[in-house]
Amino acid sequence: MSTKTLIALAISSALSLPVSAFADDSENVIEEVTVVAKKLSHANHVIAPSMVKQQSSVSSVLAIMDNLPGISINEGDAFGGDDWSTSITMRGFTIDGNQQQLGMTIDGIPNGGSNYGGGAKANRYLDSENMGTIEVSQGTSDISSASLEALGGTFNFVSADPAFEETTKIAYTNGDHDASRYFIRHDTGRIFENTYAYMSYSSTSTSRWVGKGSNGGMQREHAELKFISELGNLSITGRLSYDDADEDNYNSVSIEQFNQTPDWDQLTWNWTGTPHFDQMFAEGWSTLRENTLGYLKFDYQLSSNSSFQVTPYYHKNKGRGDWIPPYLVAAVDAEGNPVNEGGSIDSKYGFTDQNGTPLAPQENCNQSFTWPWNSGPGLHPACYSDSAVPVMSYRHTHYEKNRLGLTVDAQWTIAMNDIQFGLWAESNERKESRDWHKVVDARVYHHFDSTPYWTQYSNEFQTDTLKLYVQDTVDFGDLSINAGAQKYLVDIEKTDVFSGQKMGKVNSDSDLLFSIGGIYQLNANIELFAGYSENFAAIKDGVLERDASALEQIEPETAENIDLGLRYSNSNIDFSATYYTIDFENRITFIAPGSEADGIDYSIGTNGSYLNVGGIESDGFELSLNYRLNEQWNIYSSYTNNDSRYVGDAPGFAAGDKVTDSVDDMFVLSTDYSKGDFRVGASGKYTGERGDAPSYTVFDINAGYSVAFDSAAINSIDIAFVITNITDEKYLSTGTGNGTSFFIGSPRTASMTFTANF
């Protein structure tokens, strides 16, 4: 086994031990190593161990990044139990339900997109106990990063390696809002003389914090397997993850609705039998997702100065998104004949007679609803006879994705040159369809007929990707210079499943994208860095969903990023400061079709279009500081100032307007104390205004106690306690991209985790 791998496994084994394992028996103190940034020519940060302790094990791994500079993580609740309401913003770039402008990888493997409709963020692939670290590249992605969305930077979630010794960890978490989680992981230690492995399984459930009774919730089953084998100069790493999540969503609200009831998202938890109200029933707003991701990494050391890695991978995604429209629809083809596949909606009806025949509202009936939004008399029961039967639909959007890919990376050091080159190739087949099911009896509950009465559309999308890159870093001693280039070749094709015809094709190749940067070691403690990069995001296959999109006129999105910064480090302090400026061009925006609906347009289908609408200019600065006061106390702080504004006019905004949902100012201050077996930490984060949404500050605390045993039966036990939003601040977290509606921030939430290591 190579020395490098032995060292890596030893470190991994140490990190998998309880906190008390780091204690110096003679002085009973804990020595903690914190990494703030790597020596790169662009801004980057790596999470500190204290950031992991600030989050409950029930929480999503996304939340761990929230205190890093430039980043705002927002999820529907404290446990990250709803993908629909999850957003990530960084330097004016966003991942939310409408935009995917930041790259995300797991162990360097692309996640397959972060969008709601068929994408999967890192929390679908990784449990917090199995996470080694998170590498964040603000603004500029690593040149080898495999992503089609990395306009504004990347997040690489690195899984932990297997432990050196055979161990078993069992953990149970209980918390507010019916939170419950079971976790077990077994590390094999060394097997077959050259292999280390672990297997884990977790089961998590929570309820929505809004409301009571049947207010929905989340259920998640998750499993992981990882192994490392050493065969001389060849190292083989394999990993497989499986995730099955069933989530009920949170709803966004207007500022007026929030001011009126800051703890209600307008969804209901009692079935009334009146479809207009029951369309807001929380259990009918659902996200179901199943993800399996596996890879094999072959790392071969050719010589002391050259190596290459080949990593084939496979990802399968399957899921569904649910809504419950308060009516049934009748569809017809182009000639006006009734159809149950394709076509368009001819009429909608909310009531039938006892035989199922659609009814029209009585003449001169003016009754209508004003909540949850205005509606005409067609949905009000008072406009029908007492014998009329209310009807509803259960609308399913089905997602399925199969990705087969390969990354190849090579390194060669010769003289002063450190050369990297490689490729990423992927075949991505995605299917999406939408069908409408009849609710069996809307007077009773939302149980629906498993056979749809109409399938609105069914499409297949094929995306073929090839990325090539090369970079040379030249070392001149105190000064190092890097220069690189990358090229994307992306082809997307749409097929209508009903007709079998090819309905659209778009080429989304990039220009040759250049990057250059430098690092100057001013003295033993200070280094200066500067970097320029050209970033790229391919046209999404969702653009081909919309029949009105003018494909020949749409161009891929691009961004030019400049970073100028300083890093300072000594035995007690890690400090970094970065100024950045970004020019984002060819921004692709969805333009919805005109609609008479004053609420959700359930029937939008494949209408609407995408087009390029100018861009965004951002500039700002980021500061981060980690200060070790002594062997017990540690202080961390970060500050971000960002100004992102639109370039060019488009529907909903004008040139010079601030970018919707972008945050101007963020400030973080946290501290951690540990002595012997006890630890405690506290953190606070201020988030500035986002458009019309007011600023807010959230405080969290955590504490833990760990005890090691000199016993053959048990190695240690640990108790961890976390409270988020301890002051129970009422606030609006992230917006939905339209500047008028926002998700409500989660309330004070407590959880406790008991862990035993054997």
Task: Describe the protein in words.
The protein is mostly beta strands and about 750 residues long. The protein has one domain: Maltoporin, Chain A (Beta Barrel). Helix content is about 5%, strand content about 50%. The protein has 4 helices and 42 strands. The chain has a 22-stranded antiparallel β-barrel. Strand 23 and strand 24 (about 415-440) form a beta hairpin. It is globular. The protein starts with a helix and ends with a strand.
List keywords for this structure.
single chain, 758 residues, mainly beta, Maltoporin, Chain A, 5-stranded mixed sheet, disordered N terminus
What secondary-structure arrangement, pairings included, does this model have?
Blueprint: H1 3-15, E1 23-24, E2 29-30, E3 44-46, H2 49-53, E4 71-74, E5 87-90, E6 93-95, E7 103-106, E8 109-110, E9 131-138, E10 153-159, E11 166-175, E12 179-191, E13 195-207, E14 217-231, E15 234-248, E16 253-254, H3 255-260, H4 275-278, E17 286-303, E18 306-323, E19 328-332, E20 344-349, E21 351-352, E22 389-390, E23 393-414, E24 417-438, E25 454-475, E26 479-496, E27 502-507, E28 513-521, E29 526-537, E30 557-569, E31 573-585, E32 588-591, E33 609-612, E34 615-628, E35 633-647, E36 665-675, E37 678-687, E38 696-708, E39 716-724, E40 732-735, E41 741-744, E42 749-757
Parallel strand pairs: 7-10
Antiparallel strand pairs: 1-2, 3-9, 4-5, 5-6, 7-8, 9-10, 11-12, 11-42, 12-13, 13-14, 14-15, 15-17, 16-41, 17-18, 18-23, 19-20, 21-22, 23-24, 24-25, 25-26, 26-27, 26-28, 28-29, 29-30, 30-31, 31-34, 32-33, 34-35, 35-36, 36-37, 37-38, 38-39, 39-42, 40-41
